[in-house]
Design brief:
about 20% strand; seven-stranded antiparallel beta sheet; five-stranded antiparallel beta sheet; homodimer; 15 helices; alpha+beta
Chain lengths: ~475, ~475
């Protein structure tokens, strides 16, 4: 970016909000970290990092960018896995890190309005202090921003009970690619006055506008819960047990699954023992909400019933919260264990539950045939049809060879996903990583319409250009 | 529409799917009823009525219409209150009445795929027979089509617990204004691959495409419930009691309110006695979900607590389902009683709960000052901030004078709604009725963007032209 523009921008916003790479007010590594996410596949390359403090600041920035044809990368908590927050072409990086205030709390409705840069975990704390609960929860909440959660329609471990974040968004304020500020809804639950434009921003990965303020509906925290850890002989049984929960009177809070490989890696990395006397191919972590003492008896009856029906090989109910935490460790420790023990190629996909077994069988056959050296670790939010599929690098293979091969594996896998009516990205989005493969999940006409919609909000294509599609 | 085009269309679809006004295969009144809704303010005027039986039929129709520049009005159950389904300019009316089949049921996920013309009540029955529950419920479910529910983002009496229909839509198939068929999602819960275009169709009132197939997520029916009928001294108390429910352990299924005028009209029309010993200005119908016997004690404690805090003047818990039905009659009988006893001008609006009291006070003052002869009846889904505001015609006024005056009242009211950050249409949509007032709820830039979005799906503006905006 040209020096005179950098100067103009500094004058526009004030020096405390404008960081230039050449100024070295940050160490270079820290500076550049604002332009990458967790994919680690891309190199950051940019000169200007901005820290707006208000919607007005963001509007100033985007008006300036519109006027001067400057590309923008919105930067949140950078916990993404698709390269959506990567600045690699001398874009201006706009970090919302300083926009983390609570703007309004509505105790009547049960709603909160915050700036987009609020860290998800802080939001959880804020609302719990006020006697409410915000149910969107996942591993990265300690860093992720609420606007980033929206920009990727974050899911997590409670979707099976509370739905994705989309269901909790009442209103938002956004700044479009022309610098205009749009306010959608606010604290009203119902508003049928034309197209619900805010829905487009949910999952838009920063390509339509910068989400500066968000109003979220809140709910009540589940009173109590019990965690069951189940060992299952095959994939079909995972779904059978899930189906059993539909008729069961207690609400399911989470229905997560993990394969034996995942357990082994967690045991190895965390130095814990195997949770079951004998290994099984698959495990399910099932959490039920309970409200009354008598619910405990219901739980035992449930466990008895699935045991009698031979759906599980083993299973136990956590007797207290400490044991529940121990159970959860096997699920929550997976990502960290895999990535510290191995070089991993991740895929986050979803399938109709009814097609899941056929897909996994076909996927195993595909890998076995074409890439016999690769092993893979499966886990995910199975109640949502969401698989995290991790391919592990063989130890005698070079990283670059591995990733090059994975690049060839992906289209084969995506073809299978398409065949089984699934999605090539369940939660993580498209970003840079999957844009070449968007056609496996979206039709040509749809992509064309998406581009026209982008043009309506961002006529000069300055907002996160090259993300999702070119 | 020209005769040769009518002939071509008959050849294209077959005579059994094409009804021409001049054929008189329907009585004229029945024929024309396919081109109006419940507003009764508009006259139907059209020559051609089509009954497609499949998505392919609809695609044929819209391709033909696109090719020949013919305007289309999608016709569902015609239970709308905004003129969204009115054909008054010689449009082709496309009724989905014959597209009412169940296409697929997924017991694993708990989901059903149906054709868009399925009647909502039939869908309820279908899924209940299969051990599931579809929670979107409102007075017109006996006639309304599921695609129509989507096209208006239907709400109803369970929104406070289950959210609007938007939260239950997994997938849909639509035909756009060029005759192209788009399939969104299907049986997957999570799909973050670019903009979620199906969200635009929810609430689009037939202006972006015809929704031919819908996949809905299902849930479990509340095990049991108890209904409380409360009498309150003022508006503030309605909100205070609502706030009390947040911390209360049982889930709220409905939180409806009605004014004394409504009760009087229901008593008069249905010939029932007043439900309370003394009249109060406002009443609340509050339904809690219960799952355990001990919940009954909780309910009594709740009633005791709000009585002690002097939030209510009177209140009782229905002792059995018969009494609960009696309580519900006072709420469900309002619309019918009002419209049979009076000429009514309806408005369906929403406000932030926190602004509701100030709005109602201001609204009363406005009517008192400018239209002292008008009385009004208030009721609605107050837990959602949704008011149904009914202005009653003075008995000595002519209908046309009344409606002409109401046309002048509306902008004043909409201005107040705008001032208090509300919406001029909570559930009913914009249609023809409120399109001149869209600017009170949506900014100019937004309306411009909506038009660009419409162009992307419907480049020739043949889909329900003139609805929502010109």
């Amino acid at each position: 970016m040209e020096t005179d523009l950098q100067e103009k921008l500094t004058n526009l916003l004030g020096r405390e909000k404008v960081f230039l790479k050449k100024d070295a007010r940050f160490a270079e590594e820290e500076f550049l970290s604002y332009g990458i996410d967790r994919t680690k596949l891309y190199q950051a390359n940019f000169q200007v990092l901005l820290f707006p403090e208000s919607t007005e600041d963001v509007a100033k920035i985007l008006s300036f960018a519109y006027q001067h044809d400057l590309a923008i990368v919105p930067s949140g908590g950078r916990t993404g896995y698709a390269g959506g927050a990567v600045a690699h072409q001398d874009e201006i990086v706009v970090s919302l890190a300083k926009m983390d205030a609570v703007l309004k709390f509505d105790a009547l409705l049960g709603a909160i309005t915050v700036q987009g840069g609020m860290i998800t975990q802080n939001l959880h704390q804020e609302v719990e202090d006020k006697g409410f609960y915000f149910p969107v929860d996942f591993a990265a909440t300690g860093s992720s921003h609420i606007a980033g959660n929206l920009a990727t329609n974050a899911g997590g471990v409670r979707v099976v009970r509370f739905g994705p974040i989309r269901n909790w968004v009442l209103g938002m304020k956004v700044v479009t690619g022309t610098g205009e500020v749009l306010s959608f809804n606010g604290e009203i639950l119902k508003n049928n006055t034309g197209y619900d434009l805010k829905q487009l921003f949910i999952g838009s990965e920063g390509t339509l506008g910068i989400i500066t303020e968000v109003t979220l509906k809140l709910t009540q925290k589940p009173k109590d819960s019990r965690v069951l850890f189940l060992a299952l002989p095959d994939y079909a049984k995972i779904l059978q047990v899930f189906q059993e929960t539909h008729a069961f009177p207690l609400p399911v809070l989470t229905y997560e699954f993990l394969s034996e490989v995942c357990i082994q890696k967690v045991c190895h990395h965390l130095g814990v023992t195997h949770p079951f006397a004998a290994a099984s191919p698959y495990y399910v972590l099932l959490e039920f909400e309970i409200t009354h003492d008598s619910d405990e008896d219901e739980l035992f009856r449930f466990l008895e019933s699935i045991t009698e029906k031979e759906m599980i090989e083993d299973g136990s109910i956590a007797q207290n919260s400490t044991q529940a935490e121990v159970f959860w460790k096997y699920r929550e420790g997976i990502s960290e264990s895999l990535s510290l023990l191995h070089t991993v190629h991740k895929n986050d996909i979803s399938l109709p539950l009814a097609n899941m077994e056929a897909f996994i069988t076909a996927m195993q056959a595909l890998l076995q045939e074409k890439y016999p050296d690769f092993s893979f670790a499966l886990f995910g939010h199975i109640g949502d049809g969401n698989l995290h599929l991790n391919i592990l690098k063989p130890s005698d293979m070079l990283d670059e060879d591995f990733f090059a091969t994975c690049k060839k594996v992906d289209p084969d896998m995506f073809q299978l996903i398409q065949k089984y009516d699934g999605s090539i990205s369940a939660e993580h989005g498209i970003g840079l990583l999957k844009k070449d493969f968007l056609g496996f999940s979206r039709e040509k006409v749809e992509i064309q319409i998406m581009k026209e919609i982008k043009r309506a909000f961002d006529p000069k294509n300055i907002l996160n250009p090259g993300k999702i599609f070119d």
